[in-house]
Amino acid sequence: MDATVRPLRIPPEMAIYAEKHDIFHLVQTLVRNLMVDKPEDPIQHLINFLKRDSVVPRIILLGPPASGKRTIAKKLCEHTQAIHVTFSDILKDDSDLTRAARQYQDKKQKIPKDHWRQLIQQRLSKQDCVRRGWVLEAIPKTQEEALCLQEAGISPDHVVMLEAPDVVLIERSSGKRIDPVTGDVYHVTFMWPETEEVAQRLETPSTLMPADLIAKKLQKFHTEAHALKRTYHSCLKTINADQPHVDVLSQGSGKSLQAKLIAQKYGIVNICCGELLKAVSADESHMGELIKPYLESEQQVPSSIVLRILTERLSRMDCTTRGWVLHGIPHDVEQAEELQESNFIPNRVFFLEMTDDIAIERVTLRGVDPVTGEWYHSIYKPAPGPEVQSRLRFNPRHSEAQLLKRLKEYWNHAADLQAFYPQAVYINADQDPHTVFESLESRLVGRLPKVLSY
Questions:
Q1: CA-wise closest residue to 263 among 124, 444, 35
Q2: Mean pLDDT throughout 4-22?
């Protein structure tokens, strides 16, 4: 008997049909949901899943101590209607698994890996998480735990990593206060409650740590953060947490935000060229070591290297099966031609337009108060007084001279790029971000095609 395993060959007409109707992505999504939810009736579960209007959110929120994970997670859940999941909340459940886990903790023993995984699986398989999706706060904490989740089929759509300088985080931690009624976290400087009623009942956390212990915890986090970023590189977004939580929740109002909104709504992969280069630089690969000196000295990475990195990323399974939204490249016609020659051809191209004066006004007049972490804008959100105004700090890269240099470089190539993409759509970006998104979406007639450029 011939025991040779032969690969399954799909006839071309079937492959074309599957590609046209996004069958590969659909099957991948269905299998992933079965692996995570583990329903008693898989067929009925799939039927219910297909009847939904959209895929439920699955988000992991990570970050160092005092980076504001709890506040951001709660706001995310309010916005998405997803279930907020923390490990301490999981342990409050009354089950054999949680009782055994609490016994390990009482004995100051580490919960075994398999037991930990089962705890997470048990929580995420409950109907509230299945129906509404979830936001895992500070889960996982290590690469070992992340790989454990992957082995269990628990794969997030998005992983958000909050980042801030250690000195800021240590200061934040010392000023933390908790509302004993709601469990909400506030800060004496950065985020005071809006009502006096809440302010009066705030308490200093019993778990408040001295600065040296916080520093040790931060060091422990940093040793794992790099490995976690590598594990989730395909769906990772890093966000500066050294700013008010409302700014953390609404990063920017230009290309990055619009690309994120499109990717979230249509389930495609968001590729920011700048973030991709940073991720590769943080890797220990040959290519990472090659581009690191350019990024550290703020020099432009050679176009040939950028295109090698980009085409490798666009060739991965998630991009080929789900499609992609690309921003931050191409900068010129040469890059556009190289992308086309590599067979990465967009079927939607958008140009966001605004005058140089508006761009300069938006960027150069924005400064941060180093004492409170609050961002201000001379026109749209002035500082509350001369004392605060006098201590505002402005990013040197946001100076008018630097911005004019970047604008000049953009306009040098804009006409040629516009000619290269004659079917491109032009959107007025001098509007509210959601109005811009509505304008973008109105140009996406019918189902969003598999490949998208932005």
A1: 444
A2: 57
